[in-house]
Fold:
Amino acid sequence: MNKMYKSISLLFLLLLIDKSISDNNNTIIETTNYTLSYFQNFNSTTSCKTSNDCLPGANCSTGKCNFGTFWCKEDENEKCIMINDKYYNEYNEISKDLNNEPKPFLTTCNIDNIDNGKCKTPKCLENSDCYSNLCYNNNCMADRNVYYCKGNFNQVNCKKQSYMSCNDNSECLSLICTEGICQPQEQKSNMKYLIYIIILLFILCVALFDYFWKVKSKKGKKEKEKEREKEEKMFEEKIIIEGKKEIKRNKEDKDNTKNKEKIEIKNI
Structure:
């Protein structure tokens, strides 16, 4: 039994070692010689047959060179880093398939969201632990804007990461600029759900209005029907009363005529 436990433990340990080697054999973050302005001004019509015909960090696809994913600081003295998409979610800056995010930590928050607990990063101890180069209250804080740059064949599109300063939605990767700060992508999802809820509430209000309108119309129709029946009944009663009066008048006329005839006969 002890041998079996030892064998299982050894196998488990080997699996962990293999996973660690696999992760170590994949480049997660790689420093380049590119800068933000280089990508922002990049526009090439270079055709290619293989990736060897392209610049470093670009692959040949459908005859055109296509850059991968880069993060760049808004500083000409800072070089961009190339990101392995296998490990990072570009929108939320959260590492994927990694037990521990390697240094420098890419996840970045602004000071307000750190103070109010809305944004957290892996625990940093010093500025060098962070790609933003600023560790505040054990969280990586942005000291300058960081851009997410992604190749689009012969062009490179660069947008500001979450919690960077902004003036317009178009500046942000998430396309959400609120109170001068690029908001995370999940806020867009929350906003989408909010829109859905508003639409559902609107549909519900319309349905309720239609229901009560029909009920009110039906009630009004019944009341009108009752009023009409009442008027018809009153009209019928009036006719009956008038008929009785007419019969009474006719009878009185006949009686008067008979009385006159009797008086005339007596006078003769």
In short: The radius of gyration is 44 Å. Confidence is low (pLDDT under 50) at residues 1-25. The longest strand covers residues 146-152. The longest helix spans residues 185-267.
